[in-house]
Amino acid sequence: MDVFGQTLAYANYLLDDAFGEAPLERKVPAHAPHLVDVEIMQEVVNKWREEHERTSSHYFRHPMDLQYQSVYLYYLMNAKRGRTSFEFASAFDADGDGELSKRELRYLDAVMTHIFSSSLNMSFGLDSDQGGRGRDEPLPVRVESLLRDETVAAKIDEIVAKEKKYEYEILDADSDDVRFYMIRDAKSAIMNDLEKIRAVPPKFMCLNDDLDVALPPDERARMLTEVRELLETLYPYRSPFELPLEEED
Q1: 134-157 confidence digits (pLDDT tens)
Q2: Residue 177 has what DSSP assignment?
Q3: Fold of 85-162
Q4: Where in this chain does the record put each Stealth protein CR4 conserved region domain (predicted)?
């Protein structure tokens, strides 16, 4: 396993320790541009502060580096929202009076029914300590009173324990948006894929130079010519970050 692979294995260890063993094998993030939320990245750094500082001290890639791309994305997917049951129930108190009216209870009950596929009948099945009225007469109920109902409290506890802090979407692994190609020699599959790339270019493409230094000069020249022609076809205008033609090797 190369050093990059070792950093991924170490990232997997850190993620298992933080969030538990993943039910499915974690995937390597796509070789594509990734937008990074600065505040979320700061949370990642704060969570793995020691690993971050150790990584920053390395001049070269190290097996125990913090693999930021991997831990950032899986932190984003696994971080819990951290709301209490009281905060969850209070979110349905639209007027902020500290009580849940019949309408607000009905809203909460609808959400719970959607999650658990069964109604708790909270609009009509709650005791109230206000005025001595019975269960058949719905009243505004204080959030504290609501959470004294063991059935309701247990269901809300179950919800908040699973609440994700951030929303995310996983793209289909077979999506044509991102493509990674390893260029090894003139007989590699990439040479057969060049025409497909030319016909239907992906949004993001990574051409990884893994050329064998022992390749015959004519084979290397052929490959470089093919790749150059492809890139100049897809991207005819030079980026301002590229060297001027006269400064190229």
Answers
A1: 344 456 888 998 898 888 899 999
A2: S
A3: Recoverin; domain 1 (1.10.238)
A4: 196-246
